Amino acid sequence: MRGEGPARGLFVSLEGVEGAGKTTQARMLVDHLERVGIRSVLLREPGGTPMAEAVRAVLLDSRFSICPEAETLLFLAARAQNTAERIRPALESGITVVCDRYSDSTVAYQGYGRGADVEIIRGLLCYATGGLWPDVTILLDLDPSQGLARQTVRNRMEDEPLQFHRRVREGYLAEAEAAPERMRVLDAAASPEILHGTIVGIVMGELARSGQGRRAAGAGGP
Ligand code: TYD
Q: What is the atom index within ligand 1 of the atom nearest the CA of 76?
């Protein structure tokens, strides 16, 4: 998507198994970007709009039995709405979007985790998002047994057995190997401060490449 125009914002997603620290890192990143004068917005998936938040409540409610096909389509319904209503407009007005999970979650959880055909998932993702993918994805890699141990209250997805979460992790790593330019794998066992410094380095590098970081730093950009 890069190259559509110099004013377009950067699209950053954070991914990983439960308890990997994505949400903390996403917040720290947006705080940093705001501090250095880069307009940014923090979104989460599923969520981001009233409709998508309502779908999120359904998806995470342990009282519901949801078949794999319905689960995939609900995640994608929430994503389609968030993409159309929040993400695309923000990017088009030059705002950097930091999203706590995006399409890689569907590939990892519904594809590798649930065992759905990954190529079918990719086709559905293309339909839901109009082919939008993040410019850069930070994968916080962690042994799921460590991540789940950090969770005090579990939702419908976190209730899945450890084997499911192991398949999700393997899926993420396989996807990262296939897309090393976009997906950067970090060891989530590192301290939050170390991780934050590394993530800031990656994102500021991408912003500089796209011209925005230079503009924000006052060095003049295209
Ligand atoms: P959440 O509480 O936000 O978990 P986390 O803090 O780890 O992000 O719950 C979101 C859950 O939904 C999480 O278990 C991952 C799962 N998920 C999918 O299975 N597919 C998806 O496409 C997305 C976005 C999330």
A: 22
Q: Is the CB–ligand 1 distance for residue 160 below 6 Å?
A: no
Q: Per-residue pLDDT for 190 more than 90?
A: yes
Instruction: Show the tokens assigned to 72.
Output: 């995939």
Candidate of 74, 114, 154, 157 to mutate for ligand 1, largest count of ligand atoms within 8 Å of Cβ:
157
In the prediction, which pLDDT does 46 show?
98
Q: What angle do CA 199, 9, 120 make, to 5 degrees?
A: 80
- Residue 32's closest CA among 215, 194, 197? 197
Cα separations in angstroms, 208 against 13, 65, 200: 18, 46, 12
What is 11-214's CATH number?
A: 3.40.50.300
Residue 169 has pLDDT above 80, yes or no: yes
Q: Is the CB of 46 under 6 A from ligand 1?
A: yes
Instruction: State pTM to two decimals.
Output: 0.93
Ligand 1 atom nearest residue 103's Cα: 22
Phi, psi of 22 (to 5 degrees): -60, -45
**C-alpha Rg value of the chain to the nearest Å:** 17
Contact present, 48 and 219 (Cβ < 8 Å): no
Domain-wise residue ranges, the chain:
11-214
Q: Tell whether ligand 1 has an atom less than 6 A from the beta carbon of residue 93.
A: no
* Contact (CB, 8 A) for 99 and 134: yes
Distance in Å, CA 131 to ligand 1 centroid: 21
